[in-house]
Design a protein that fits this description.
CATH architecture of the largest domain: 3-Layer(aba) Sandwich
Number of strands: 13
Distance between the termini: 40 Å
Bound molecules: uracil
Helix content: 40-55%
Number of helices: 17
Structural class: alpha/beta
Largest sheet: 6 strands, mixed
Strand content: 5-15%
Radius of gyration: 23 Å
Shape: globular
């Protein structure tokens, strides 16, 4: 008989343990995580085990202040992953490798990366397969699923059997959450948002990794962004988060690495939904000019994935990069992207004719002019993302409706010389939208820039790799 069965666990003891910096036992952690899920399901929660929302909030604050031991961080993640539906990809033939990013602005990396890496096979001849469960945007960050829905007909709601079939046929699939994946996370995340506990590294790591573990990939590359447009504003915090997520995945027997990259300015020029897809199509057709920073991140993450797939060692990242550059030029990834669109019900002819994507009329593409000469010294990426949101490209509130055609194109990046009257970028507007919102977008985009007389030092992009 286990301890939990012999002596009922109480909410009080779980709270006391975290308050007093004592580790929770597996039984206490299971009791707590199950309680989190059952709390919202009063229909099934036995009265003596239900946990009150005030107790959840107290637990979160205790973790925020006291932290969790590394072992308890792993245990929390694993328990959150186990207490919910699982995605069973055991029927998929190949090495399953996933990527996750903590997000930012202009970082619609997943489709390009998935199309690229899924063209490779392992040294044993097994296909590399990319199952990507992605999310939607809110506020200043865009969502992968929202952008893909700009492709006419493209469906992001796939069943488990559709995902398995598609992965076996095409090697890549990008889809929304299936079933109740790590349901405790949804509840804890909402509470963290209103209890000033969102920035706890063990809670962030457990939140992200619990959902990743459920997906059943063999390995992961985790991209942690840092800077003005990122969740982690400070590099040190980003590195600690990256290390924590790597440690969790390793403890669970997965191959994993993290790349910390800068989000101190938008990663790429075309920001919006159809605009972000058009950028992917241009990159997959071999265009690189203007997309160098975006491609640097795509290539670095892809090279990590090839190492996890056994094609290269960590010491051979340069060779991996060369191989990826050759692969992109071959157009094989463009074909993969076409296959994915077709498999998910979308119109594959957009690949050769991007004008079939939602587009604003030329007359509604409006430049935002620089007000002085100098150099772009800094660009607040969050404000650029907010400008796109005011145009209607992202939701301000969950009930808002996204306009797939609108967005913005950035013309000047950090370090670029700027002349007064030159466009810093162009807004793609919907003229029928609230005029005040469109005006606010233009103002917000302009104010995102710091223009000064001195050219800044070239900004870094790939800031750390953790294996
Ligand atoms: N993304 C998540 O899924 N959870 C967090 O806590 C932060 C970012």
């Amino acid at each position: 008989m286990d301890a939990a069965a012999a002596r009922p666990i109480t909410v009080g003891e779980v709270l006391r343990a975290v308050r007093d910096k004592q580790p929770l036992t597996p039984a206490q952690m299971r009791f707590f995580v199950r309680g989190v899920v059952e709390h919202t399901r009063k229909d099934i929660a036995p009265a003596d085990r239900a946990i009150d929302v005030s107790q959840l909030a107290a637990w979160l604050m205790a973790v925020r202040i006291q932290g969790l031991t590394p072992d308890n961080t792993v245990l929390l993640t694993k328990t959150m992953a186990e207490e919910g539906d699982q995605l069973d990809l055991s029927g998929v033939n190949g090495e399953k490798i996933d990527k996750h990013s903590t997000g930012g602005v202009g970082d619609f990396v997943s489709p390009t990366l998935a199309a690229l890496v899924s063209t490779f096979t392992t040294p044993e001849g097994r296909p590399i397969v990319i199952p990507m469960m992605s999310g939607r945007g809110l506020g200043h960050t865009g969502g992968t699923l929202d952008a893909l829905e700009a492709i006419p007909g493209f469906c992001v709601s796939l069943t488990q059997s559709q995902i398995v079939t598609q992965l076996n046929r095409t090697g890549l699939a990008i889809f929304g959450q299936t079933g109740a994946i790590a349901p405790a996370d949804k509840i804890l995340y909402a509470l963290r948002n209103i209890t000033e506990t969102i920035d706890s590294i063990p809670l962030i790591a457990a939140s992200i990794m619990s959902k990743k573990l459920v997906e059943g990939a063999d390995s992961f590359v985790m991209n942690v962004t840092t800077g003005s447009g990122a969740f982690m504003k400070e590099l040190n915090d980003a590195v600690v988060l990256a290390r924590t997520m790597v440690d969790i995945a390793k403890a669970e027997g997965r191959k994993v690495s993290s790349v910390v990259s800068s989000m101190d300015q938008p990663l790429s020029p075309m920001i919006g939904n159809a605009l972000a897809v058009k950028q992917v199509l241009r990159v997959l057709s071999g265009e690189t000019r203007g997309f160098e920073r975006y491609l640097t991140v795509v290539m670095e993450l892809s090279a990590h994935m090839l190492v996890h797939g056994g094609l290269y060692t960590q010491g051979q990242m340069g060779l991996a990069h060369n191989d990826l550059i050759r692969c992109l030029a071959s157009r094989a990834p463009q074909n993969k992207f076409r296959q994915m669109i077709e498999a998910q019900g979308g119109d594959p002819t957009v690949v050769d004719d991007p004008s079939k994507l939602p587009t604003v009329d030329e007359r509604n593409i409006v430049p935002v002019f620089a007000e002085q000469d100098g150099f772009a010294q800094a660009i607040d990426a969050t404000q650029v993302g907010r400008a796109a949101m005011f145009l209607g490209a992202n939701k301000e509130k969950p009930e808002d409706v996204i306009d797939l055609a609108v967005g913005l194109v950035v013309n000047k990046f950090v370090g670029d010389a700027v002349r007064k009257g030159e466009p810093l970028g162009w807004l793609h507007m919907n003229p029928d939208r609230d005029k005040a919102k469109n005006g606010l977008a233009a103002e917000t985009f302009l104010r995102a820039y710091t223009i000064g007389a001195v050219a800044p030092a070239p900004p870094g992009l790939i800031l750390a790799s953790i294996w």
